[in-house]
Amino acid sequence: MRSVGVEEELLLVDARTGEPRALSAAVLAAASLDPSGNEEVFESELQRQQLEFATRPQTAMGDLADEIRRWRAEAARHAERLDASVAALATSPLPVNPSIGTGERHQWLKEHFGLTAQEQLTCGCHVHVSVESDEEGVAVLDRIRPWLPVLLAMSTNSPFWQGEDSGYHSYRNRVWGRWPSAGPVEVFGSADRYHEQVNDMVASGVLRDEGMVYFDARLSHSYPTVEIRVADVCLDPSTTVLLATLIRALVETAAREWREGVPPTRHGVALLRLAAWRAARSGLEDHLVHPVTMRPAPAEAVVRALFDHVRDALEDSGDVVAAQESLAALLKTGNGARIQRELLRTTGSLREVVAECVRRTRG
């Protein structure tokens, strides 16, 4: 059974106004004083209005769900000491002036990337799935490429930007795409070719190090995993768990195809960029680009195509029923982008949108 770990980036907001607050250092300090000794779970991010946590590798999805809920609650508890809270929002609905961290790496990014770095207050969800070798990992990356926009569409949770409706379901994806190394990639064919490409990118001088290789999916440079980085942080932890379940099954399906000699599809990067744009624009509310045909199809049909593609792996891991039920609930109630817009229609206030999202994040 492949293990799965999740990293979630959360937005730190004022408990009364809902406006983002640059408190990551203070929250980390509060966590370090906690007698539970779990401060190493939390990390700072590029912007001081963000806080990240990482789960341990898990093989049972129920255990993963428990961890995600636990660390969200712990993050909220630490923030509350500072009259703040956390929200699982991929962008701030309210206007914000982001504040880049003071560390050497963050200041380097600020100096070299200017406004791209300054505006980069976005919160994502990264899912790590264990692989046996770099060769297997790259074979997986080559075969999951066309399915990544579907995962993005399911996770979309960033319709607002600087107090306005962006017109997108994931504006985070559009902002994140400004980094020169972000987005979909070509078929590599081998681990040697993957590492050669990464080394060449760093040697160009544009990137500081391998950690700045922001592919939608990559080999982790810290763990024996593939890291799928395409998703928004999800408002509801059940959506995060559903994504992790489908991603593990997608990795397993791709690895089986590789062992059986099934070649990856050769969709070009240009088409994959269009599919990602459509997913960010439409979420689950309209058509998506079908990963097999690269033609428009209703979002529900495309999501169910992903489910059918990985069904055998879900059956083998014992996750098929839970995934089916969670997927049906997501399609019925909607993801974070739909919920945020419905909250705005109901309350007429972006502050109330943030307040409700804080409550949902805290659980």
UniProtKB/TrEMBL annotation:
The keyword Nucleotide-binding applies. Keywords: ATP-binding, Ligase, Nucleotide-binding. InterPro entries: GCL_type2/YbdK_subfam, GCS2, Gln_synth/guanido_kin_cat_dom, YbdK. It catalyses: L-cysteine + L-glutamate + ATP = gamma-L-glutamyl-L-cysteine + ADP + phosphate + H(+). Pfam families: GCS2. Coiled coil: none annotated. The keyword Amino-acid biosynthesis does not apply. It is an enzyme of class 6 (ligase). GO terms for molecular function: ligase activity. Its EC number is 6.3.2.2. NCBIfam families: gshA_cyan_rel, PRK13517.1-1. Belongs to the glutamate--cysteine ligase type 2 family. YbdK subfamily. ATP-dependent carboxylate-amine ligase which exhibits weak glutamate--cysteine ligase activity. This is Putative glutamate--cysteine ligase 2. It comes from Streptomyces ficellus.
